[in-house]
Design a protein that fits this description.
mainly alpha, two-stranded antiparallel sheet, about 60% helix, about 10% strand, globular
Amino acid sequence: MSLPPENVAQIYVNVKPLLDQAYQELGYTDDFDRALVRAIGTLLETPRLTADPMLLAKPGYFEHEDPALKALLPVQRQFLLVGPENQRRIVDWLRRLASSLDLNVR
């Protein structure tokens, strides 16, 4: 990741009132921090694979062969495709961002 999570956290703090306002205008009643915690949590709950997942070629897209992987949320299935090393880097970066924002993620 080329952007330090601590810098992103500072930007987030600066624009948070706008994010909260836009989020509420979309009809959500909680603040954007909670949405961010849920989003990070979803990625953290993605299984860690030791080998590349088997994919089935479909017309115009690929699908996971493993029924357990096929049952994951779309963002989790996409997250698996970045590979184990990039997945680890992203998870580390997200944990540092959450820590910088004092957000409680699993």
